[in-house]
């Protein structure tokens, strides 16, 4: 019997004997078990007075779940990138830079057509797949792919927000702020901030509830 099996057996027997979760965590800590290992072992059993302890379903990632999450996040990235690009091109057309010449207008229109084409394909797929995930999958039991992609998205959004802020400060210190630049910074900030806020809530829903004593 390995350490994980011994820990699981101890927790099961302690819960069956009527010990509280706080008592079990304290005893394991005194024996040298990491708090995270204790919490994970306790989370494998429902917080119920029923005897013997009721095991929770094991969180696993099915091929269908992995497929849905991969499609959802891929189309999210595509949609966010090209929606930002679309807004950038509108800003360039509304506030043209004389130094860029007349070619800039035609270039911006080509970028607009491409961004609209991608959005018309990617965004509806994102909405449909996200709706399917919400209907079919329990966030509290999301498998590894869902958790990892959500965490990765939060990480990317955080880097974008920090880079956006640093760029704004850099331009401000250099005295090179223009309305066009400020609007583009605002677009990036709103997109990244919206994605960060939404998926932070999703990640919290995936976390198991705190166990009561």
Structure description:
It is a single chain. The chain is an all-alpha fold and 213 residues long. The protein has two domains: 3-43; 63-206, no CATH class. It contains seven helices and no strands. It has helices spanning 3-16, 21-30, 35-43, 63-94, 103-136, 144-173, 179-206. Helix 2 (21-30) packs antiparallel against helix 3 (35-43), helix 4 runs antiparallel to helix 5 (103-136) and helix 6 packs antiparallel against helix 7 (179-206). It is elongated. Residues 209-213 have low confidence and may be disordered.
Could you provide a short overview of the structure?
By secondary structure, the chain is an all-alpha fold. The protein has helices spanning 3-16, 21-30, 35-43, 63-94, 103-136, 144-173, 179-206. The two termini are 28 Å apart.
Low-pLDDT runs? 209-213
Radius of gyration from CA coordinates: 25 Å
Strand tally is 0
Q: State the domain count.
A: 2
Name the beta content range.
under 5%
Shape: elongated
Q: Helix tally?
A: 7
Largest sheet: none
Topology as H/E string? HHHHHHH
Secondary-structure content class: mainly alpha
Please give the alpha-carbon distance between the first and last residues: 28 Å
The whole-number mean of residue pLDDT values reads 85
Helix content range: over 70%
List keywords for this structure.
elongated, single chain, 213 residues
